[in-house]
Structure formats: structure tokens, C-alpha cells
Design a protein that fits this description.
By secondary structure, the chain is α/β, with parallel strands linked by helices. The protein contains 5 helices and 6 strands. Strands 3-2-1-4-5-6 form a 6-stranded parallel sheet, with helices on both faces.
Length: about 220
């Protein structure tokens, strides 16, 4: 049986849905690209190299190896073959999946300050406001993560903290920049406090927009 041609409204709805998916994919791609550029990755070996070998000073430690953290890890491994990439999580639920990607999984609370320091550190775990309304646990976790950054001791490297555009007071679609007023809502406080900690230690803060792709 032949189906009737789509109405104008159906065509517009389909076009709008495809546009939202495309825009979402761009947001994810730009977020990951911006993050890895701020990490100032190492030089990629030429294609003639026989096999990947560990490169000095390219280890990466990721706190919050979830949706964004995994994508950063994949990009880093592609640019720095042989680098050690550790993905720290709160539980071991995703550890088998991380291993399959070439990421060394670890429970964040089990990491050793003396043994696990890395020149490149990314903190991209989201705040857990339901279980910790005042955000004190989150700020402490960021402070803790800074202790694993060897670049703080004068070595090369970068510490990147992924904050959110949600800390900005603007909520009507206006143009914002680094100097725009921030929100005084309780939900923004953990992120803003963490931003201050990271900047004080010489790290980099990225305020990202929402992350979307075809499945979320």
C-alpha cells in the first residue's frame, strides 16, 4: 500500500529534528576538540614508526571517565600512541569498557599521590547536587585532583577543569564571555568555587555547553 506524502508540518518537524541532531554533534565535537587543544598534546609519531612507544611526559589522568572523559581519552591515545591514560571513576562499573578502549581504569579514592601524578590532568566529573547539596564534596574532589598534577611543580603539562556555561547569570540567549556576570544560585557555587581553585594553581577552566549526540 502506498503511503500518503508527508505534510508540510511533518517535513518541518523532520527537518528540525535532523538540525537538532546535527547541532548536537557539533557541540560534542567542538567540546572535545577544545578540551584536547587546551591539553596541548604531544607530537604524533610519523606513520613509518614500527610500533607505538611510550613518549616521555604524555601521561594523562582523567577524573570522571564518562561520556566526555572517554572521548578525550580516545583522542589523546590517537595523538600520543603509547601514552598511559588513566580513567578514574567512583565505581568499577565501567572498568571493563574502559580497558577495551585502551584506558587504564582506577577507583579515584584508591589513587596514590606519589605514584599516579601526571603532567596532563582533566577533571570532567559533574557535580552530584542531590547527594551533596552544598557541593563541598565536589570542591574537595577537585582540590584532591590538583594534587595529582605534576605540572604544578614547574614541569610542562596542563590541568583542565570542565565547568559549565550554567554558572553564568545570562539565561535569555544573550552573548557571554569570560567577563560576564555569574549566577548566585546555589547550584553554581560548587563549579565557581572549583574554578577559583584551578585558576589559583595555574590550571585551565573551560565552561562547556550541554553535550549532545545522536543518542542523548
Amino acid at each position: 500500500m502506498w503511503s500518503s506524502p508527508p505534510t508540510k508540518g511533518q517535513r518541518l518537524h523532520s527537518l528540525g529534528r535532523r538540525r537538532r541532531i546535527w547541532q548536537g554533534c557539533v557541540v560534542v565535537a567542538l567540546s572535545v576538540l577544545t578540551l584536547t587543544l587546551n591539553l596541548r598534546p604531544c607530537v604524533v609519531p610519523t606513520a613509518s614508526a614500527a610500533s607505538p612507544t611510550p613518549q616521555a611526559g604524555t601521561d594523562l589522568l582523567i577524573f570522571g571517565a564518562g561520556y566526555l572523559g572517554q572521548r578525550v581519552a580516545k583522542r589523546w591515545l590517537a595523538k600520543c600512541p603509547g601514552a598511559r591514560v588513566v580513567g578514574a571513576t567512583l565505581s568499577d562499573a565501567s572498568h571493563n569498557s574502559l580497558r577495551s578502549m585502551g584506558i587504564e581504569p582506577a577507583i579515584a579514592s584508591d589513587l596514590d599521590y606519589e605514584k599516579e601524578k601526571a603532567p596532563y590532568v582533566v577533571f570532567c566529573a559533574p557535580p552530584r547536587t542531590r547527594s551533596n547539596p552544598d557541593g563541598s564534596f565536589y570542591v574537595h574532589a577537585v582540590s584532591d585532583a590538583l594534587r595529582f598534577w605534576s605540572g604544578k611543580d614547574g614541569n610542562s603539562g596542563t590541568f583542565v577543569f570542565t565547568s559549565s556555561g550554567g554558572v553564568l547569570a545570562e539565561d535569555s540567549g544573550g552573548v557571554v564571555d569570560e567577563q560576564s556576570p555569574v549566577s548566585d544560585l546555589p547550584g553554581a557555587l560548587p563549579l565557581l568555587s572549583s574554578e577559583e581553585l584551578v585558576r589559583a594553581e595555574g590550571g585551565t577552566v573551560l565552561r562547556l555547553a550541554g553535550l549532545y549526540d545522536r543518542s542523548r
